[in-house]
Write a structure and sequence with these properties.
By secondary structure, the protein is α/β, with parallel strands linked by helices. The protein has helices at residues 53-63, 79-82, 110-117, 191-197, 225-234, 251-262, and strands spanning 8-14, 35-40, 43-47, 69-73, 97-103, 133-139, 144-147, 150-156, 164-170, 173-178, 202-206, 239-243, 267-270, 276-278. The strands form two sheets. Strands 6-5-4-3-2-1-14 form a seven-stranded mixed beta sheet. The chain binds zinc ion.
């Protein structure tokens, strides 16, 4: 991929929530759990390590002519956001430099959570075998840091066991990433989402459900595409990207959502694996 001095290139590698759902009913939009690649100049920023990170790894390896450096941002450590990490081949190569950044949570160490995912007998290889991982650090809600020439802001969202969202700014563009998150009040915008997504060029939002299904899932920590739409419009977001779909949402359901949002004002896309959007 050619290096751009301005703007962000955003590629989706996993768009499903909870568990991977491979098969003919999910083949068109993709069946992997969350992973998004962001190119900000020569910096590679990755959001979440769901199973989609395996495809990202293959893509990076194909285009690399030397060791790979990337920063991996984890919103939280629910399985679907970290389950690709033990299978992320780039992380086993000591020549690579992978820096993991995740939420600072009271009483929870991020590195402990990642190590515990790979403890025997549930997995045969320990986290320490990921020799390409050079650091694991935590970001607190409200914190901002620079990565290359990009600035990344973190803010807590509303989710069981706590999640954080991120806003990546580079070259005059901004991407907001709000997975996983449940709107506590459909008429009010969560302060974390507001802080991250105001005037963003793209907001990736938790669209696990539709409003019609939501009452059965209230309190599970996820939102609806309709809430995402209202939020994006209220915060002057240029493009809303719906993602994090519930495993029961198949491609024909996403076709129906796509048809509905295309009739509405503003740009809304249904995130699709291996598609790149230039902001
Ligand atoms: Zn979660």
């Amino acid at each position: 991929m050619a290096i751009k001095e301005t703007g962000l290139d955003v590629t989706f590698w996993g768009i499903r929530g909870s568990t991977p759902v491979p098969g003919p009913q999910t083949a068109r939009y993709g069946g992997n759990t969350p992973c998004v690649e962001v190119r900000a100049g020569d910096a590679i920023l990755v959001l979440d390590a769901g199973t989609g990170i395996q495809s990202l790894g293959r893509s990076l390896k194909q285009s690399a002519d030397g060791p790979i450096k990337l920063d991996l941002f984890l919103t939280h450590t629910h399985w679907d956001h970290i389950q690709g990490l033990p299978f992320f081949q780039l992380a086993y190569d000591p020549e690579n430099e992978i820096n993991i950044i995740g939420p600072k949570r009271d009483g929870l160490s991020l590195v402990d959570c990642l190590e515990r995912q790979m403890l025997a007998p549930n997995f045969p290889v320990p986290f320490a075998a990921l020799q390409g991982v050079k650091s694991v650090t935590e970001m607190a809600s409200g914190e901002s840091r620079t990565f290359g020439e990009a600035t990344v802001h973190a803010h807590s969202l509303n989710h069981p066991n706590e999640s954080i969202g991120f806003r990546i700014e580079f070259g005059g563009r901004a991407l907001a990433y709000c997975l996983d998150h449940e709107h506590s009040d459909p008429e009010a915008i969560h302060p974390g989402v507001m802080a991250l997504a105001q005037d963003a060029d793209m907001l990736v939002f938790d669209a696990a459900y539709c409003d019609e299904d939501y009452p059965s899932f209230k309190g599970w920590g996820h939102s609806t595409w309709q809430v995402g739409y209202k939020t994006a419009r209220a915060l002057n977001v240029k493009t809303l990207a719906l993602s994090g779909f519930n495993p029961g949402v198949v491609d024909t359901d996403l076709d129906a959502i796509k048809a509905q949002v295309e009739r509405l004002d503003g740009e809304t896309i249904v995130a699709t694996e291996s598609q790149t959007y230039s902001l």
